[in-house]
Amino acid sequence: MAGEVEYRSKFYGRVGLEKDVYSLAVERTRYVMEHHDRVMVMFSGGKDSTAVLNVALEAAHSDPRLSARHLPLRVIFYDEEAIPLETEEYVRRTFARPDIAGEWYCLPVQHRNACSRQSPYWWPWAPEDEAKWCRPMPPEAITHLDGFPVWPPEERMTIPDMNGLFAPLPYSTAMLMGIRAQESLIRARAVTKKLVDNYLIPYKGKTTRGNLTKVYPVYDWRTEDVWAAPKLLGWDYNRAYDLLEMAGVPPHMQRCSPAFGEEPLQKIHTYAQCFPEVWARMAERVPGIGAAQRYALTELYAYRDRPEKPAGMTWPEWLSHYLEKFRPKEAAQVAKRLRYSIGRHYRNTTDPIVYKARHPLTGVSWHFLLTIAMRGDFKGRKQEGGVLTQDDGPLWDRYIAEVAEVGASGTAHQYGHPHEWPADPEALRRRINYVPKEGS
Question: InterPro entries, per this entry (predicted)?
Fold first, then answer.
């Protein structure tokens, strides 16, 4: 497995160390087990949580003191209902181990439904939808958790909001999670905020009381590491990935979670191909699923192409057109998200926002903002980007070319720029180390 590399610079670069990623993950987990009263693994049955689970077991077994305190290991599984049968089988095999104390929760937690703007949420195992459930209720299911409201539906919590229910006072609790910096910019940013113990992050959900810490022991693993470990170390794994591999889905895009969210929606067709038993029920589970299956990869859902803005309409007006398609509450959330991105851009530069080319320093473009206006970003996972590499010449070349093109076209007034359009676009090029202003 590759040498350990840490995301610590403002450019989200990787710093090579002498040890391999597996050894360091075990060391981190031992440290966590030594300094917390209780430890629990958040297990989805996916590849990343598989790595975390096996690292935690190795750490606990490596020291008799840790074994006495933390074994059998507490493992939490949120059953999201619309998952492959292979995931259910894998979780059942895992929970049969004598060194694991598994808790299998089937609760109607609030999930995102990106298939419909008018029905933006769904609830797995919702009692009112029992006739539509994608799978029978597993015999291991726990259907009650103190503090979680089942009724009325609008009071049901999201998973992040309810995680604090597993960490009662006065105990300090560590929640081990399969979060990897390679997977997204937001995750890379999460582990660059401090130089020491950057994999430990205080949890701030609704139900937490200051005693819960998120732990990312495999944050620096690459996809290659995640798959090398089961092969080299003989771990069990979810056989759903074998089906995704045979279907030609690249390893970095293989997911076994429900396909109704904003990002997973683009792979919804793989469920019909790889998991037909579950798909037969998924096809009727949430509002809008039929349209999503047909058009998820088209401009209707802001994938690949985007709808062409009507001539004469400004970009802010075009975004407002799509905000009107959401319910008022969700439209307000999306509008707030858009204001944040635009405000962040202008707090850090006076350069204009153009359509296609993201600004090299802030990562903002109207193309990016239109994606948010059309899909929403209720989980906060769409990131502007900006300064992903110090070699920013090509980024500036594309941006400056588009600024010049807009200026020559006479359409600059449509871009909502609060300043005069740059007369000399080449003068905008700044080869500097970018440090975002406080609060951005």
Answer: DUF3440 (IPR021845), PAPS_reduct_dom (IPR002500), Rossmann-like_a/b/a_fold (IPR014729)
